[in-house]
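Sharing a chain and its predicted structure for anyone who wants a worked example. Both blocks are below, sequence first, tokens second.
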Amino acid sequence: MKKQSESIGKFSFKKIAFCEEIGDQLLVTFDDNDVLYLSPYNYSRYYLYPDKIITYEMYIDLVDYESLRPYVNYVINLVKRKSYSQKQLKLKLINVKHLEEDKAKLVLKIVSSSTNIDFNRQKCESLLFKVQLKGYSFKRALNEFYKNNIYKDLALEYLNDYVPDETIIFKYIDDFYKRDKNSFKKKSTNKLASLGFDSKEINYYLSKYIDDNNVTFENENKKKSENKLNESKDNLNILMENFYRFKCFCNLEKFTKNAVIQYFKRKGFSYNDICNEYDNFIDNLREGEYD
């Protein structure tokens, strides 16, 4: 096999002696016996044929493009194994292969124009994975595609069957509920709004979570406790009157404060409530309310 020249002397032009396909390469031999092995993405940029005149600038351009072949193959192998965005691939070329940014961009341009790899679709697959993982609303997901320069028809093609994962949404709500039961509704509302959901959708998810998990709120429990306490105090008044009438037979000597306290403490009433109710009962008794 003829060896490609490693040094390039300055010249005005060269003439192609002949071209020969060898595998997936084109062997170009010049009239000075210099040779170039060009890959398809390279030689397809020029219409090369015997007797064609190649200027120095064209020759350098062909050589420069050919020097990028290892990086082109590197990118192709990467995207065969996993979906990458152009930004991710550019960073790999710069950080891993130590290419300058303009060279990295050229490599990606070569890959895009010379293969069936569609970077927009690669980007769409990465975006779809991201919006599903985050639990975005359809509206927010669509905006993510637009922000990344994906045109509407392609974005809708990928989001055609998109439905937010309720498991992820309820996980957000559940985390807030476990941290603070009093503020979880407000924090959940703010979080779901940031994911792109409107008030109607947010109310649906919160209501469903509350119903499915039998959620009660501290202020509601407090109100129930207060109602129960009031009922208890009302009952204590009635029970104390019954105690006076049917246990002590309206005899104040038997209806002592100590006897009342001991009796009603066994019934589960608090000391303070018993004392307060006893004093009120005695005052009312003296005023003739229980005659």
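Comments welcome. The longest helix spans residues 218-247.
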